[in-house]
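To start, one record:
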Amino acid sequence: LLLPSHPAFKAYPLPDYNPAAAKALLAQAGYGPNNPLELTLTLSTNPLVFRLGQVLQQQLAAVGVSLTLQTLE
């Protein structure tokens, strides 16, 4: 999440949000209801950062990926 004025900023085309295609790719990789993909994201207790983590958690849940949010002080 860099501003265009940041020296490391690079504009990339954003992929479409396509849960059906994501589910198909996960199934192709061997993940699904019987073998779910479970991830952990470690983040700070900053409210904005935690909220972004919750958005990722919700989007991944839509395709069957479990994201656990773990905060560090």
